[in-house]
Amino acid sequence: MNINRRAFALLAAGGALALATACGGTSDPAASGSATEAATGPVTLNLWTWTGAPGGAAMQRAIDAYTKDHPNVTIKNTEIAQLDFKAKVPLALNAGEQIDVLAVQPNLFADQIKDQLLPVSAWEKDLPAGTMAKFQPLSLEQNKKLYSDGQLYSVPFGLSGSAVGFYNAALLKEVGVEPPQTFADMANLATVLKEKKPGVAVAVMPSGADSWFQDEFALTLVGQQDKDFFNNVRYNNGPWNTPSYVQGLTALQKIYNDGGLDKNLIDVDYAKAEETFATGKAAMIFNGTWDSVLLSPAYREANKIALTDVGALPVPAVGDPATRSLRSFLDVTMGVPKTAKYPKEAADFIAYITTGAGVDAWAKDLGLIPAVQGWNPPEGTLTSDAEKTGLKTIQDLIASPHGDRNNLSAFSAEVGKGVLKVIGGGNPTEAAQKMQDDLDSGKFS
Amino acid sequence: MRRTLKGEGRIAFLFLIPLFVMYAIYFGYSFWFLIRTSFTKVSISFANAVDVGWKNYRLLLEDETFIHAIRNNLLFAAASIAFALTLGFVIAVLLASGVGGRKLYYAIFLVPALTPIALVATVFGRMLQYQDGALNQAFRAVGLDGLAAHWLTEPGWAFAAVVGLFAYLIGLPIMYYTADLSTLRTDVLEAAVLEGAGPLHIMRTIIHPMMRSTHITVILALLLGSFRAFEVVLLSTGGGPDDTTEIVGTYTYRFVTSAGSTIGYASAASVLVLIVALLVSATQALIARPRRAPQERRSSRRTKDGGMSSRGAGAPASPSGQAAEKPDAERTSR
């Protein structure tokens, strides 16, 4: 076949153009500068989140509110199951898929994909003035810990903490007991319930097949005696089997033996624990602050939870009530990938949902505590004193934790089993040593 | 017997090529990827993998929990096989013998096997909880409070509960046996009845040996299936208490879903499990290899020369089952 020079030149030019167009799809817009200019026509932002960050319906409310004010912008939220998110996002980014706003999981994942994210410094100028100053200082500090080079590649969205307690305020009022501050109070509550409300357990928490929460609960108790314990392990390679940890396990064992917690409920999984509390079969539930949805009357009504009033409190103290606290950390952060087509619009939307008017739209569900300073739920979200005080308690606890809830999940599950063994009568020192051996093995890091 | 045509093998091979290619891509690539990943320290993003040599394998082989998990896999498989070869077999024979309400019984035994295992395991887990579990509630309702136990948190009971759950899922073996029983030669059974053999005797010395190939299928299916039965444990006991019921599936799952760089470690665990499963299959295949009697081998040689095969000639059953093999048509009907 003969191809004349003119035809060949046209083909070559066409090929080069096609190649340039294709490459342009994955180029760094911050570097080129062209894409950072505001789009004049219709804009479609692709947002990727995982389930619970903050949840499809909650995010849609924020999207609807934003697009109402920005009629040229359409936002598509791709919500992916949490476990799949870590696998799918890197693949999509490597393939050059247009993602304009990405929810970034605040764990090892963040640092692993940082090379595919625009540094915040590249789009900070597109945020409304003073946006960065609106974040809680602690949330920005925790955000920096996510990235090995000390730069910010995402901004805080929401925080959570663990462990915390929620109580059936109406039930406690009925039996004439104040919300417990110590485990001695808990044992007293158990005695009162046995007398006045037989069949109602003092407290329930995820356990059994969801033993990871036992690790969370034990660490909360340990933090009452040794505030630096977890951060020392997590960031300084500190030991796990410290005297304070063994002391925490010993205290936990004693709490169960004294009746402050019910040994008969250590086989319930997450769902059963929720069900037990929601159906009034337990006066309290211990869980993460993500369960603060229970404070919302609207949530309880929508989910047919018959509890009329719910409050929240810190995990009771083993000794001095002043030591009560929890571990908290960022739960969701928001970044702009290099594959973003509209980084400027993405930055504006991020500001709207993290520190702007969009916060109320998603945060009124109360599952995540917003990272913006001084947030209060919209009027009417909470009605009773117990609900309002409970949310304030949770916000205060998250803002001043004793350590970061920056877990290694596989290790957490392993530790949870050890904690359950101690509750069942195992030796706390031996259990702590086994956890130390597991940690030293390197298989969990 | 039809003669093999010249070049027929090559044509058959050509037709098989697409299948081989598909297998090579699907399995070959998967295995290669798994093996390659097992020598690295990497997260689920598969980015920035660090080569760690044999470290993951060394850690696994030094990990008592992993060894314990493999042992549990084999123990649960053994229990499952024991139930299938005894209870499952007897149930299948009884149902095939024409008892009344057969369809109802089939439904009762087969439905668990056809129901998603995740659902069955979750319901079992709920039923066995101490406080509100149906089993303890039932004991309390009839005044047998003393029998209420911590089924999921006492190590012995938890192990027994998982064994019970495996036993509950014997519907598939029953189905295998039922299918094979329908092809069983009735003349042998009639002869036995005429000779005065009782039902138990017939079941033990005639039917059981005649179904040797089904036993092998059942054993292999349950043995290898135990390595994939991770929902059974995850959703009932979660592997606890204290690793008592841990199996390799639940063990690996924790590392796959971890936030850390543990995918290489999980891959190494999968490779080791794959090797164990292959060894089990090879051993089982060797043990279960049909051993033909000298007389039969002579007959086979005659067959090659165009004579009649002795297999399927209705040779009397023997306890070992060697001479009780069914005709090829029957054996391949499943």
Automatic annotation (TrEMBL), chain A:
Stretch forming the signal peptide: 1-22
In terms of PROSITE patterns, this protein maps to: PROKAR_LIPOPROTEIN (PS51257), TAT (PS51318)
Q: Determine the domain of life of the protein's source.
A: Bacteria
Q: Which keywords belong to this entry? A: Signal
A Pfam family hit: SBP_bac_1
Ranges of Basic and acidic residues composition bias in the record: 435-445
Note the InterPro entries from the entry. Bact_solute-bd_prot1 (IPR050490), SBP (IPR006059), TAT_signal (IPR006311)
Region listing for Disordered, in residue ranges: 426-445
Query: What is the name listed in the Swiss-Prot or TrEMBL entry for this protein?
Result: Extracellular solute-binding protein
- Source organism per UniProt: Planotetraspora mira
From TrEMBL, chain B:
Cite the residue spans of the region called Disordered: 289-334
- How does the UniProt record describe the way this protein sits in the membrane? Multi-pass membrane protein
Cite the record's Basic and acidic residues compositional bias ranges: 293-305, 325-334
GO CC annotations, alphabetized: plasma membrane
Composition-biased stretches (Low complexity): 306-324
Similarity field: Belongs to the binding-protein-dependent transport system permease family.
Against InterPro entries, the record matches this protein to: ABC_transporter_permease (IPR051393), MetI-like (IPR000515), MetI-like_sf (IPR035906)
Recorded protein name is ABC transmembrane type-1 domain-containing protein
Organism field: Planotetraspora mira
On the tree of life, the source organism's domain of life is Bacteria
Q: Which residues cross the membrane?
A: 12-35, 74-97, 104-125, 157-177, 213-230, 263-288
* Presence of keyword Cell wall biogenesis/degradation: no
Please name the taxonomic classification of the source.
Answer: Bacteria, Bacillati, Actinomycetota, Actinomycetes, Streptosporangiales
Q: Keywords for this entry?
A: Cell membrane, Membrane, Transmembrane, Transmembrane helix, Transport
